Fold each of these.
Amino acid sequence: MNYQLAVIPGDGIGPEIVEQALKVLDKIGQLYDHSFAYEKLLAGGCAIDAKGEPLPNETIEACKKSDAVILGAVGGYKWDTLPGHLRPEKALLGLRGELGLFANLRPAIIYDELKDACPLKPEIIGDSIDIMVVRELTGGIYFGERGRREGKMGKEAFDTETYSVGEVERIAKIAFEIAKKRNLKVTSVDKANILESSRLWREVVIEVSKEYPDVALDHLYVDNAAMQLIRNPRQFDVIVTSNMFGDILSDEASMITGSIGMLPSASLGENSFGLYEPIHGSAPDIAGQDKANPIATILSIAMLLRYSLNLEKEAQAVEEAVIKVLKEGYRTGDIMSPGKTLVGTKKMGELIVDTISKQ
Ligand code: IPM
Ligand code: MG
């Protein structure tokens, strides 16, 4: 089969990690007889520099025509002082919104090989931790009305959190469908003791849960959820939550896996089209130094193969190769521990590519 992929390397470490991910995809193409055509597109800080805006229209249009989008990371010190609508991060939100990618899947799995890199005690980690964070991605405070105005104590700023029944219904359904294929448990995270939007969230999740009698549902307030993730992460299977809470909790969950450099993500809409990116940012402090961990992006490729192209065998080949390379003791700096072999971004990519070819 021929697939057309939109590729947005972005800023900072984005280009170097995406380069490794595309090498992996090329290898999969060779071995399994697929051809992947890439269209490289600008978004983020590099688009601000080249085109004067973070998300040029031609990038959105090209993404819409593709089978799926691969994104590295956007942002950097250079653009940090620009006004909100011109910041590189605006490109991410624009893509998510314009492409209708309301469901963000962030799997946090602790690999046996990386248990050393996990900051939790062995008795808390137990045999394994495997959590799927399902984050709502096109609503809530990220997309609500915001602004500045005069207040009683001088100028004030506001951001608003809004959720509709329809928005919560569709993300809750995704969470329950995923739980059906996993361990039949959904934890909905909100702040329903305070926020009206969370009260509606909880009501709707309970309503949707009635269609899934086999899936157990519980609710946690976000502060408690943050604590439970450290206290007893094994209680979680699928976590479904709002845009902002999902942003925060997925970073926390990523540390359980050893490093934020390990966590991939898939952003999906109504059909199989999706955008795939690591959950980490552009890490400008280590950009261009061959230090970044490309695994989160490579694992995002596995998610792309699985969710957008329906190529499960190929997805597993990528995941197995990552595990094998870790088993052989190769580590980038972020997951390094004594006795292991330190490698750079490129080498890690090459090792994974070579391992795929050997399977
Ligand atoms: C993420 C990132 C983004 C977000 C930023 C870069 C806008 O933190 O994907 O988690 O907040 O969604
Ligand atoms: Mg984040």
Note: The mean pLDDT is 96.
Amino acid sequence: MQKRIFGITGREVAVIGQGTWHIHTAGRRVSVAAIQSGIELGMTHIDTAELYDGAETIVAEAIAGRRDEVFVVSKVLPQNASRRATIRACEQSLQRLRIERLDCYLLHWRGRHPLADTIAAFEELKQQGKILAWGVSNFDVSDLDEAVGLAGEGRIACNQVLYHLGERAIEHAVLPWCEKHDVALVGYSPFGQGSFPRAQSHEGQVLDAIATAHDATPRQVALAFLTRRAPLFAIPKASRLEHTTENARAADLRLTDQELARLEKTFPRSGPPRSLPMG
Ligand code: NAP
């Protein structure tokens, strides 16, 4: 499994990780087994959140006895992101996950609490050793600038954003910003939330042709494109074993410059968005 440095944490983290939103719908036993297989295949970057109904307890079961192998990320809801409630939310996530420390703790999206208060809580959690690092999610450049203005350079580990072949809005400004500031950019919903190109479509056929050349699958091609360079990471969610296996194998796929150009042309990005799209 390909790894790369996760921004300012200095930690080598699996480029393709595992999301856990709605993972419980497959049933506890199946979802625990899917995450465990993913870990065995190297997808040790695990994304969860207090929002994701029961997912943290499923992750707890999946990572029991192998804490040192995994990089665990969770998120505080905006309505809990006051100075005191952020600390409490983190402690509750740690309890549900049955671990002593999160590798990265994110603000899920911006809400009514002042960002300064959330950041102060994140820094306190870091000092207490309850988190290794903190980051943000669904932050546009103006939010990122504000966060750096408050926290200083070298404090934000990552920004987690919507990114798939049909939604490349982050490439206009957020990706260059993250490159410049050494912030890991983690793309969520890499398969487009149910809108993955159908095999019969022109887009599907292009993906299929590139996949065939590598003895790979269209979804593996998509993941390879979405993680084609630093600081990009992807966190597909899979509760079926065959999906987990397919996603993990994408990490070893290297697309040629011509293939990347063909994908760029087939999935053109739209103009700069007024506001960052969210899933
Ligand atoms: P996704 O990963 O793009 O898609 C998940 C769907 O794709 C599931 O139905 C899954 O099926 C299917 N799938 C996975 N691998 C497949 C494969 N190889 N072949 C065919 N189908 C496959 O969508 P997502 O769950 O929205 O996004 C991923 C993660 O990002 C979430 O789980 C969550 O951790 C994170 N996220 C974060 C935010 C945020 O605001 N920060 C928002 C949304 C999501 P099975 O489950 O049946 O295997």
Note: The chain has a mean pLDDT of 96.
Amino acid sequence: MSAVQTARLMDGTGLAGRIIEEAAAKAAEIARSTGSSPCLATVLVGEDPASVTYVRMKQARCAKAGIRSRHIGLPATTTTAELIDTLAGLSADPDVHGILLQHPCGPHIDERAAFEAIAPEKDVDGVTMHSFAAMSFALQGFVSCTPGGIMRLLKAYDVDLAGKHAVVVGRSAILGKPAGMLLLAENATVTYCHSRTADLSAFVREADVVVAAVGRPRLIRGEDIKPGAVVIDAGYNPGNVGDVDFDTASTRARLITPVPGGVGPMTIAVLLAQTVDAAANQLGRSTPVSEGHSVHDGEQRAE
Ligand code: NAP
């Protein structure tokens, strides 16, 4: 007899929908009271088909939520200096409230230098060193969107992180590393694992909360999940497969994110929410800032 799924699913699609509705309502209020609606600038270097699709998707979601978008498509031959000029121009433009540099930008671009040309108050994708420092010091600021989405999911499902052992598998600048910082800010005891970690299974077996952010299909085996653990799968691999072996993990976990429909939709929801907050801040509106990692805003519960 095969084992039965005991884990409750964490519904990222539903929660993301509510966050976007709330962002749309705030955007409408900003437009009404200031005569100017929030504007997200998207910058894309080259024409990588996946990146083009991502940017179009983000623009379409913005439009639905009443957020304007301004797209700057640059040729693949763009230099780092030219990209920095573009981003600095958008940073100084009062009609642009948030900036998203779609990455990867190509091997000839110094991506870190480009990100740093984004003004912190417009860094709605949470990619600058300023934003990382804010996440690390638990200060108000914009969060990296996927880790921010993960934290909102945990909060929506009332996962108390204080004193829990959170194991983050992956340490990229946009996902694993900031996710660990945000978990730490909520008083979890955080372990980072990565490609050089010896005996990954041993760490996962000790985890009360597992965050998989690797990009390797089903790397995290169900048999390593501690019974009753919370499993967040940020991985997205070809064929809609996550980094966690869902079928086996869901027989042991208490809560688990599906792929798709878990972390994925949360990323764009956080991007839109932060764009509206950036506009509110810049236009001098007192619209409350969306939930940062250290601010509890009474967000609607998932249950
Ligand atoms: P990345 O930059 O390639 O980083 C992958 C991380 O995984 C690295 O830190 C790497 O370690 C680690 N790693 C690789 N092989 C490993 C192994 N065998 N054991 C343990 N750790 C290993 O990827 P990313 O941008 O963080 O993305 C990770 C996954 O999340 C991908 O599937 C991506 O598609 C997905 N993602 C989803 C969203 C979303 O919106 N849902 C957003 C972003 C990313 P080293 O540092 O040692 O190389």
Note: Residues 144-263 form a domain with the Rossmann fold fold (CATH 3.40.50.720).
Amino acid sequence: AVLVTGSKGQIGTELVEYLRGQYPKVIATDIRGGDHYLDVSAKDTTLLERLVVENDVGCVVHLAAVLSAAAERDAAAALRVNNGGTEMVLEVARRHALRVFVPSSIAVYGAGTPKRARENSPARPSTIYGVSKVYGEMLGEYYHERHGLDFRSLRIPGVISSKAMPGGGTTDWAVEIFYDAIRRSRYSCFLSPTTSLPMVYIDDLIKGIATFIQVPRSRLARSTYNVGAFSVSPANLAEAIRAELPFDCDYRISALRQAIADTWPESLDDSAARRDWDWNPTFDLRATTTTMIELLSNRLASAERAIS
Ligand code: VAH
């Protein structure tokens, strides 16, 4: 069985659904509910260990985290959830010899990193979220070296998806823009038009995570890999949307989130993931735009009908 923390989040919502097509049992936990209430920031391993033992869990997918902008607003809470939660999950995994997947992020890279980041590019973040993600990677690799724990991590770019909103991220604009394009044909973007960041469409990401957690360890040359798909700026994405809908984008820059985005790389070199475990994203900017507009139009239209 696989246990997922943060199962109600942007990635968790769609990953749980996908994994349920592959595994006999997927235990979904979240502080907001799901199958089981689980607050990973509490230092109490009792509930997690009970779920692991009772359900014969072999792999934990630990998604619960406070994202970049929210983490700058409440550093103490973010460190409690991100660092404390990962500490707790790694310790339970060590005791029960579980495989562990903990997502990392392009946020581990800082201003001094080349704009096309490789795995061995400097990872000197200047955000609390980035610091907590480097910590997660380092602690997981320590558990791998010191205790033989099968720890795996992916440095994930911004995620574009339609079923659950991201919460408090710097790349949330790339999701919000589609909701506003459909609802009101306009969007006020909190990043500047030329801020180009690496992104991935959710279908590619969840297939990639599902592949990465089950590939034999012998194929992995490292615990942590970059994964990317395409890079896009608000101006590029606005143009791609305008090719399908009447749409206008203006800019009300958030100083906090622009400062965060400015430290991140524009693209990721993910050749190692493609070579070692066949990472192979298929959604480019156009396919992502077309699919998002189709899925959201249907969902928002049926939601309108439901309340009318
Ligand atoms: C964030 N969506 O914006 C997350 C992610 C690379 C961005 O880490 O914080």
Note: The mean pLDDT is 97.
